[in-house]
């Protein structure tokens, strides 16, 4: 998330690929991109969940709708849970060719397989996109994530408190983030230690 914020401070890219299994990281990444986009004049936001009944005509017309009075717009595409199928891959490949400066594309979904990463749309988008990993941190990386998140809440954790939080909330970053917010309210001095 810190890498994404640093990249957004440098300026928006044409597209963002938010790929992973963690709902909190996916949502926070999406929100950070939208906030940055709003400061750059992206006022309209459109969201589509991709499946076999997606109205691609509507998506393509949004991408091509450019007038003197049209505002900049963002387009969020939610990939199917198992990743895009051949038909969706084909439509995404066409969509990638329609990107322009007044359109910000955000693609959100689970981590792709190697075969899915070889699809034409993905390889075409990779050069102009920022890929953000939204995978839940593994157990070995979780203490570092907790420490960084605690710092955002003005909390200082000792190692024992950090380990206890990791143990209690492993695999559920949303509950962990909420617990840290509650702890920040309960301990205004910000120092959390276990005896």
Please specify the SSE layout and strand pairing.
Layout: H1 2-10, E1 15-19, H2 23-39, E2 42-49, H3 56-64, E3 72-78, H4 86-96, E4 103-109, H5 114-117, H6 120-126, E5 129-133, H7 142-152, E6 156-157, H8 159-169, H9 173-186, E7 191-192
Parallel strand pairs: 1-4, 1-5, 2-3, 3-4, 6-7
Helix pairs in contact: 1-2, 4-6, 7-8
Task: Please characterize this protein's 3D structure.
Helices cover 48% and strands 18% of the residues. The protein has 195 residues and is an alpha/beta fold. It folds into 2 domains: 2-133, P-loop containing nucleotide triphosphate hydrolases (Rossmann fold), CATH 3.40.50.300; 142-192, Helicase, Ruva Protein, domain 3, CATH 1.10.8. A 5-stranded parallel sheet has the order 2-3-4-1-5, covered by helices on one side. The two termini are 32 Å apart.
List unreliable stretches of 5+ residues: none
User: How many strands, what sense, and barrel or not for the largest sheet?
Assistant: 5 strands, parallel
> What's the β-strand tally?
7
Distance between the termini: 32 Å
CATH superfamily of the largest domain: P-loop containing nucleotide triphosphate hydrolases
Count of helices? 9
* Number of individual domains: 2
